[in-house]
Design brief:
Shape: rod-shaped
Largest sheet: none
Pfam families: Lipoprotein_19 (PF13617)
Radius of gyration: 38 Å
Order of helices and strands: HHH
Protein name: YnbE family lipoprotein
Organism: Citrobacter bitternis
Number of strands: 0
Helix content: 40-55%
Strand content: under 5%
Structural class: mainly alpha
Keywords: Lipoprotein
């Protein structure tokens, strides 16, 4: 007699399984972004390299 309630409970649980459905949308997904990108480039040189570059290319105001 104990098997009948167990069988019925199993059947009830099997009938109540949730169904999850994942579907793609019909229209494409649009993402509007307003993005502002700013960047700075810093170049550091050794003092020796800096003086060498200044000797090869003197500033316009010093040359006259």
């Amino acid at each position: 007699m104990k098997t009948l309630p167990v069988i019925m409970m199993t059947m009830m649980l099997a009938a109540c399984t949730p169904r999850i459905e994942v579907a793609a949308p019909k229209e494409p997904i649009t993402i509007n972004m307003n993005v502002k990108i700013e960047h700075d480039i810093n170049i550091k040189a050794d003092k020796e390299v800096e003086t060498l570059l200044e000797k090869q290319n003197p500033p316009a105001s010093a040359g006259g």
